[in-house]
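Worked example

This section walks through a single chain of length 142. The input is the sequence exactly as stored; nothing has been trimmed or padded.
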Amino acid sequence: MNQTLKWLEERGVEFERDDGIDIELDGKHFFVKCSYLGFFKGRIVLCIDFASPTASEPVKRFMESYTRIRRARYAVVVAGDEIWTYDVIKKEEVEDMEVQAEFEVKPDNKDFRIAAAYYNLIHCQCGVGDEGNSVCGLPLER
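Given that input, the structure is written out below as tokens.
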């Protein structure tokens, strides 16, 4: 595990695999998820996903919206050795995270549309089951 995630665990953040959620748009259902959720004092504070270093931009966009939908504060994308952390409250990439359970995040309708569109874009049908970023059968954690 990298330094940032280890630092978060030391401060009480617990990580669990994301089981995903079903969202409904225009009468159609879409299943979306990331790889892991980070909990602090029983609340989701961050969402983590993995991406290929050469194809991380769509994953970052998905994670911005998905993190708001899950009402978490931080979106984290691990792409090789690079870690991208986005604060959905400040609406900017950040270097450091504040580990706290008190904050408010409100998704809007466009977040649901973006999450559904980008999830289907970055997760092809040839993957293994519904495991994370199973693009062309690659493992969940690359």
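What to look for: The CA atoms of residues 6 and 13 lie 9 Å apart.
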